[in-house]
């Protein structure tokens, strides 16, 4: 696999005309500051990329495109209702070139309607949709067709054509564009190599596993060289292991070709694994938006906290049951830390600064986009003002601490 | 069974095959587009037009509700206009086709409706137009059903062609009625039924094999 990728990296898929995209264009100096070199990315093994979650430990600020990247998508006050049921109630959003924006929400929150407004499969009742600066929400079907070729899409249920071979599925967008057969075959072969499925070119989709089907879906979405990839719950029908490998593939494509990706999901794990920025949608509105690590570190809305529930440390149930608001022997503290505060030796400093005993009940420091984000549950002996001193100390160190109750 | 009877049986078989094949082909060529039109113009279809849909449906239902034997007679002026005569094998092909086309259109419609809407959405997301969706998605994905439905139509036509004897079209059914039934020649009756069984089984077997080859859905 590696020699192929090195060759690919030297020549570049973009140079071979496979993708009409600029290469991953992080300047060397910036790349070095971010703790990785281009080579490390390029050499990543495609079909079975290492879990990106583990890779994220190296310090790395938000994606370079975040700073001043040009807009690929801009949504302005998008509204859409189906009969009496509102699906979108004024959504404004920007997706910048090269970033992965994750939109998360419960089912029925309006995610699907939102993503379908971006390629005109759904029309907003009001508001504007700009794709690469062009307003598309009022365009007719025939004007939308060439535009949709700039936007790839992958689906929860893959939506591969059962009557066509894998190769013909991948080549379909090119066939629609009217490209000659030889070119279609060559590109399909290259794309299938990219997603690690060359051996299945002549197979029919029904003989593939779910993960393989989604790889074909990704290859197909990339065939016409899109500027934007829309992912509609692309991993929701897959098991956790396959999900990780598909997400790793998407991240790899994003980093190597600078492909902008907008994905919708109901799983925070997906956001955590690959998104640069997250927008939380609830009842047709964006309730929270920001870099993934900062939203994870300090979720503002109730819905975000609830969606994060599954992947953030929670107070163990047996202690939560015994918790009482009446001061008792031991105070239970919840401490949230992120960024620089979490890089410090916080607990040993606490032990040195505040006399008395405390115990770590549960929690730890996680790494999201290379930023440490953690939640700790501490049990602090409630006497001699130790609880107040602990709170003061932690607050002074930019950790958010509060007393949950006493046991 | 005499040499003459055998000759008659062979000629009747040829007439039945001719009527079935010709009207089957016409119903395929006319019925499939009609089925596509029904699917395309229905609510949420790729070319939604409820008025066109209602009118098409009404015409199809109208033809389908007329008993074939009545249609056979009622269409005599039309047959004369098209074929030049209202009697004989070729003349029977006109009412047979006109009866089979709406029947097949409904069968094709059912197969086409079973195509996953997600596939149509995927083709639209790729920038495909209506024609692309029909050519690359609807027809290829529904093809096993379209072929299976065509097999059913052919078998139905074999049966319907027996009635075409009423306008002097000949065929196996006609032979069975005139010789087997009216002249009490039981051997002819048995022979005709045996030939029909073989014919129908053959059509069904071919159809099933073709479907198995085309079907990649599982």
N-to-C series of helices and strands of chain B: HHHHHHHHH
The CATH topology label of the domain at 40-150 and 226-308 in chain A is Rossmann fold
Shape of chain B: elongated
Number of distinct beta strands of chain B: 0
Instruction: Write the CATH homologous superfamily of the domain at 40-150 and 226-308 in chain A.
Output: P-loop containing nucleotide triphosphate hydrolases
The averaged pLDDT of chain B comes out at 93
Report the portion of residues of chain A in β strands. Answer: 25-35%
Give the class of chain B from helix and strand content and strand pairing: mainly alpha
Q: What is the CATH topology descriptor of chain B?
A: MetI-like fold
Mind describing the biggest β-sheet of chain B? none
Task: From the alpha carbons, calculate the radius of gyration of chain A and give it in angstroms.
Answer: 24 Å
Rough outline of chain A? elongated
Our count of helices of chain B gives 9
Domains of chain B, number: 1
Poorly predicted ranges of chain B: none
List keywords for this structure.
heterodimer; A: 407 residues; alpha/beta; six-stranded mixed beta sheet; four-stranded antiparallel beta sheet; disordered N terminus; B: 218 residues; mainly alpha; MetI-like fold; 9 helices
